[in-house]
Amino acid sequence: ILEIACGEANVWSMAQAEAAQGAAVAFHESKGVTIHKWPPEFIEAFRQAWDETAAEEAAKDENFKRIYDAYTAFRAEYAKWGDVGYLK
């Protein structure tokens, strides 16, 4: 029962959080906030800096490497869905 309840709470929380984002953006815009997206060249620079930092940490820390490798594998698999799962 506890596992089912926790799973349902997680699904509900994710759905509520996603549903609230439009209102959150509208609220901030109503207060004069201009929302910007990072330019692609910034995102690429951030990615390169992170890749370098992560490689350095993975070389020093076995636990970091284990977790980072699992995280990287998850991101690669999830990217397949991210590319097709949402209307753009």
Label this structure with key terms:
88 residues; single chain; extended; mainly alpha
Distance between the termini: 39 Å
Q: Which consecutive residue ranges, at least 5 long each, have pLDDT under 50?
A: none
Backbone shape? extended
Number of helices: 3
Kindly state the mean pLDDT as a whole number? 95
Q: Please state roughly what percent of the residues sit in beta strands, choosing from under 5%, 5-15%, 15-25%, 25-35%, 35-45% or over 45%.
A: under 5%
Which structural category fits the helices and strands? mainly alpha
Return Rg in Å: 18 Å
Give the biggest beta sheet: none
Strand and helix order: HHH
Number of strands: 0
- The number of domains is 2
Helix content: over 70%
Report what the structure shows.
There is one protein chain. This protein is an all-alpha fold and 88 residues long. It has 2 domains: 1-36; 37-88, no CATH class. The protein has 3 helices and no strands. The chain has helices at residues 2-30, 40-60, 62-84. Helix 2 (40-60) runs antiparallel to helix 3. The chain is extended. The protein starts with a helix and ends with a helix. 0% of the residues are buried. The mean pLDDT is 95.
List the helices and strands and how they pair.
Blueprint lengths: L1 H29 L9 H21 L1 H23 L4
Structure described in brief:
The chain has 88 residues and is mainly alpha-helical. It is 83% helix and 0% strand.
